[in-house]
């Protein structure tokens, strides 16, 4: 296969996948169902609450560096900054860890959960977190979607 044919085949496969996805009704803006929210809450409690708090409140003084120089775990409720970021960035942070996403030598205690949670599970956790936000924060965060 020539390079030109390989490129055209790749473009064709990508366009076909996009058409299948678009036609499937898949949307990150659809409200999550009760099952997704329950799964997200359970996964949050199992993997996130130890650092970010059972009530999403984060660690005390989360804006003040620890003796290690790293920041404590931030809250995921309306008092934090999670709602200032689009879903795709939040998914990457959960999957890869903060240090990997920020780069530039930034150090964080937030590990990546990509080996533990699937993308669907990560999205369920985010759906549950977002379901706890007041309308103003949800609307702002939704406006960040390209």
From TrEMBL:
PROSITE patterns, A to Z: CYTC
Presence of keyword Heme: yes
Pfam family, one: Cytochrome_CBB3
Cofactor(s) the protein requires to work: heme c
Segments passing through the bilayer: none
Coiled coil: none
Record GO terms (molecular function): electron transfer activity; heme binding; iron ion binding
Cytochrome c domain: residues covered: 35-133
UniProt KW keywords: Electron transport, Heme, Iron, Metal-binding, Respiratory chain, Transport
Keyword field contains Amino-acid biosynthesis: no
Protein name: Cytochrome c, mono-and diheme variant
């Amino acid at each position: 296969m020539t390079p030109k044919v390989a490129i055209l085949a790749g473009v064709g496969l990508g366009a076909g996948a996009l058409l299948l996805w678009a036609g499937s009704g898949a949307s990150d803006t659809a409200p999550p169902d009760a099952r997704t929210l329950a799964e997200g809450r359970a996964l949050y409690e199992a993997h996130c609450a130890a650092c970010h708090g059972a009530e999403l409140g984060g660690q005390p003084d989360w804006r003040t560096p620890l003796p290690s120089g790293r920041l404590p775990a931030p809250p995921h409720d309306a008092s934090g900054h999670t709602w200032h970021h689009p879903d795709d960035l939040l998914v990457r942070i959960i999957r890869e860890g903060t240090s990997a996403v920020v780069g530039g030598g930034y150090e964080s205690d937030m590990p990546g959960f990509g080996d533990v949670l699937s993308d669907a599970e990560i999205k369920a956790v985010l759906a549950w977190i977002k379901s706890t936000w007041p309308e103003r924060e949800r609307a702002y965060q939704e406006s960040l979607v390209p």
